[in-house]
Amino acid sequence: MNTITSSHVPTRWERLKNSDLIYYFLKDKVAMFSFAIFLTCLLMSLFAPLIAPTDPYDLTSISLMDSELPPAWMAEGDENFLLGTDDQGRDIFSTILYGSRLSLTIGFLAVGLQLILGIVIGLSSGYFGGRIDSFLMRFADVQLSFSTLMVAIIVSAIFKASFGNEFYSEYAVIMLVVIIGIAEWPQYARTIRASVLAEKEKEYVEAAQVMGFKAGRIMFRHILPNCLSPILVISTVQVANAIMSEAALSFLGLGLPVDQPSLGALISIGFKYIFSGAWWITLFPGIVLVTLVLVINLLGDWLRDAFNPKIYKG
């Protein structure tokens, strides 16, 4: 009797579990520790309504009588406010959780906008070349000659002058996403353009052109998937940059309004009271912000090394 043997086809999860990326990740303790901290911050911010003792947006739960209370372990502290309160009587621990959620939301959405602009412009510049390439890259060079913060300040000032402070405050999150996205897209465009210049000379692109495929299909369905590694590495770093840009704009008064506490807004509020002794308003949000940016940058460095085996040490 003949028996038919069928070879087992690994699932996507099995291929991912046995991939070099997971192997390198499990060997790198710094990457594992950084990812654990980032995942903890992400989950705590996502579930802030369930974890936070109070809702900083609920005015009925806030009392000015509780303003500027020190952390619970200090002499004048209140056990209901673990990390103390700010100038409005909001619990610092709760505002950090909600503020982290806002900062991460702005960071991810801004990077998504950068990604869309950078991919479209970078692909078009690298694939078509010629005058289109020259125009787009000169435009990117002009923008790169200014600092990200300067571009963000100019764009935010234009938005405020055009639509007014009330409109800006009402749609502050959307405005910041647009501002930071516009300020940072050249990083993606230049990197993707360099990858496209290398990829478009390969045989699979020439074969697609001979078969009569349109330029859009060749760029997005054939070339783009081969440019994902540098895009992924840049995205991790850009999330950290976007969070820092939002914090800087909020600190300068060009970011989120006072009633929408982000990490940058909390640091800005606390800075006004730090010399009066209320150091906790700035310190604890500052520690969370620095930690969040640091672990994201460490993950970005690990990804860069993992995708480049020539420099990966293991």
Kindly list the characteristics that best describe this protein.
about 325 residues, mainly alpha, MetI-like fold, 14 helices, globular, disordered N terminus
Describe the structure.
- It is found in: Cell membrane.
- Keywords: Cell membrane, Membrane, Transmembrane, Transmembrane helix, Transport.
- It holds the Pfam family OppC_N.
- Residues 100-300 form the ABC transmembrane type-1 domain.
- The chain crosses the membrane at residues 30-52, 106-130, 142-161, 167-185, 223-244, 278-300.
- The protein has helices at residues 12-17, 20-27, 29-46, 48-51, 92-128, 130-144, 148-163, 165-170, 172-199, 203-210, 215-223, 228-251, 263-271, 280-306.
- By secondary structure, the chain is an all-alpha fold.
- 68% of the residues lie in helices and 0% in strands.
- The chain contains 14 helices and no strands.
- It has one domain (70-306): Orthogonal Bundle (MetI-like fold), CATH 1.10.3720.
- Helix 5 (92-128) packs parallel to helix 14 (280-306).
- Mean pLDDT is 79; it is low at 1-6.
- The protein starts with 11 loop residues before the first helix and ends in an 8-residue tail after the last helix.
